[in-house]
Amino acid sequence: MNWQDIKVSADNTHFLFEGKAIFNKRFIEVLKFHSPGLAPVKDESGAYHIDATGKPLYNDRYFRTFGFYYNRASVVLNEKWFHINEMGKQVYQNSFLWAGNYQENICSVRDANNQYFHIDLVGHKIYSQTFIYAGDFKDGIACVKTSEGFYKHVDINGNFLNEINFLDLGVFHKNFATAKDEFGWFHIDKQGRGVYKDRYLCIEPFYNGFALVTQFDNKKIIIDEQGNKVISV
Hints:
Elements: E1 6-8, E2 15-17, E3 20-21, E4 29-30, E5 39-43, E6 46-50, E7 64-69, E8 72-77, E9 80-84, E10 98-99, E11 107-110, E12 116-119, E13 133-134, E14 142-145, E15 151-154, E16 168-173, E17 176-181, E18 184-188, E19 202-203, E20 210-214, E21 220-224, E22 229-232
Antiparallel strand pairs: 1-2, 2-3, 4-5, 5-6, 7-8, 8-9, 10-11, 11-12, 13-14, 14-15, 16-17, 17-18, 19-20, 20-21, 21-22
């Protein structure tokens, strides 16, 4: 049985293989399997992880467990968040008020002062500053909210990609990111420059050269990467 073929039931209480319940057990909650074939579950004993045979990986129990990313899973114990490895061992000594999932060997966390920053695989902060918010890294770039209340993009050293401040930001996808200024949403390049002059009520990332956007009259249209209207939706 390949773990990639194991599905979560519609009510998130058990697992299915070829449409049939497996492991002879129902849980309070289950989440889907992640590489290398491990899944977070919760029953009356607490939250933990199982392998693709339904066997618990370790004896410890947590308040919540999440999926493995880069061989590390975020767990919650006594309102403290940290990461464990596939043997169930904590991978660093410190803990946080919140911890995300590792992406590109880096993870966003929130400390006791409600400040966000990123850590490496052994829990070390990868740059000196902190932020009001910090999102996941994608292709070496993450979105953060600065103490001044603006959103910016940073690299893995915590350096800003450009000096332009935004009211909101999305991650880069195929060389463009969604951004918001005082006039509305639009798309930018890595220098922070708008790729067209129009602004919208809301927008989606470009998908193979085109993006769905919503005008201020709530009408939806498709635009190309130059901002030209292609069709109404």
